[in-house]
């Protein structure tokens, strides 16, 4: 189990690097758009669309990393009230429900891809399958990270070993 979690964490390092690059590119595109529109008076017609698509990927990739580190927004009242095995069972149940949701999201995302693959984006002229691919990619990463978080519940912590 620990080896699987290490592999997933290695994948997350790569995702984090990709996420940082996307965020940097998106920021530079937005700055270039502002400069070109207001100072040069020659707007970059494609930069807003590409920035929007990068933002969608950033959200899905970032959500998967947040899932891994239990940093997603959640209501902590019940888990905070529980201790020991009851808390662990509740967390496992939450992760299992999340995995089921992400599998459904993946399936629906694949279905959406088949519907939009023939459409082209307005400015870039690319297939809309590329922006919509963020949904199944994000769902896979969210599922993988949910599995890692679930497995963490069964891996003894260092403080538990003493």
UniProtKB/TrEMBL annotation:
Q: Which family does it belong to?
A: Belongs to the TRAP transporter small permease family.
Task: Provide the protein's localization.
Answer: Cell inner membrane
Q: How does it sit in the membrane?
A: Multi-pass membrane protein
Q: Which domain of life is it from?
A: Bacteria
Q: Where are the transmembrane segments?
A: 12-35, 50-68, 89-110, 130-151
Q: Which residues form the Tripartite ATP-independent periplasmic transporters DctQ component domain?
A: 26-154
Q: What protein is this chain from? A: Sialic acid TRAP transporter permease protein SiaT
Record keywords, A-Z:
Cell inner membrane, Cell membrane, Membrane, Transmembrane, Transmembrane helix, Transport
Annotated InterPro entries: DctQ, TRAP_DctQ
Q: What is its main location?
A: membrane
């Amino acid at each position: 189990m620990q080896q699987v979690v290490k592999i997933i964490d290695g994948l997350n390092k790569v995702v984090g690097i990709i996420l940082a690059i996307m965020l940097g590119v998106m920021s530079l595109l937005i700055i270039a758009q502002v400069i070109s529109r207001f100072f040069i008076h020659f707007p970059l017609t494609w930069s807003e669309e590409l920035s929007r698509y990068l933002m969608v990927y950033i959200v899905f990739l970032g959500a998967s990393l947040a899932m891994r580190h239990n940093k997603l927004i959640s209501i902590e009242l019940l888990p905070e009230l529980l201790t020991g095995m009851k808390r662990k069972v509740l967390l496992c149940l939450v992760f299992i429900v999340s995995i089921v949701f992400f599998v459904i999201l993946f399936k629906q995302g694949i279905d959406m891809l088949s519907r939009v693959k023939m459409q082209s984006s307005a400015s870039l002229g690319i297939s809309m399958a590329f922006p919509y691919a963020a949904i199944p990619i994000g769902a896979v990463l969210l599922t993988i990270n949910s599995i890692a978080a679930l497995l963490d519940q069964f891996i003894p912590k260092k403080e538990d070993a003493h």
